[in-house]
Here is the input.
Amino acid sequence: MRCFDLSLYLVLDPGLCAGIGMVETARAAVVGGVTMVQLRDKEADTKRLIETGRALKEALAGTNAKLIVNDDVTAAVAIGADGLHIGQDDMTVAEARARIGADAILGLSVETPELAAAVDPALVDYIGAGPVFATPTKPNHKQPVGFDGLARQIAASPVPAVAIGGLKVIHVAQAMAAGARGVAVVSAICGQPDPETAARALAAEIRIFRSRRSENGFHKG
Here is the structure.
């Protein structure tokens, strides 16, 4: 059973994190409530990814946060990461699952309801749905879909979704109202003066949304 919590998903950016580094950013953010950390560094080769990933794994030891590696399956396996996240233009999900094994988490980026509907839940554990907004942290991203488009992607998906794409604290409620299990952020934590405080603010919004939804459901019952 692959257990994980998509609530607050931090995607590390080496440029934005340059001030205190990706490892310290992740460490502080997890203290603040981040539940999953993705190592994404498009400029790094596999060797450097492995070095950073091992340092991240050590920093997150003893916490419940999961470490996910973006794209590089060789690095993910060498690090002993909790999982791998791939895009539509990377290897097939069948190949990725075969490489990482049955126990690791596999995430897949989708940009349309059709791609979401085509996800095989026997292979993929969650989708990254969006992008909700345009974002400079991923210059080659697909056309932003907004919250309505996000909701359509999530409704079509057979697996849980984390919303991504320019999301900040003020967007948490809308993203989760669209059906997202959590929010994935980059600049909302990376590069902030205090990543722990930034993460706490996001985590608080998630708790508030879930509390209100629970109360509404109770009263309706």
Remarks:
- The chain has a mean pLDDT of 94.
- The first strand starts at residue 8 and ends at 12.
- Strands lie at 8-12, 36-39, 66-70, 83-86, 105-110, 126-129, 161-163, 182-185.
- Helices lie at 22-32, 46-60, 73-79, 93-100, 113-117, 146-156, 172-177, 195-220.
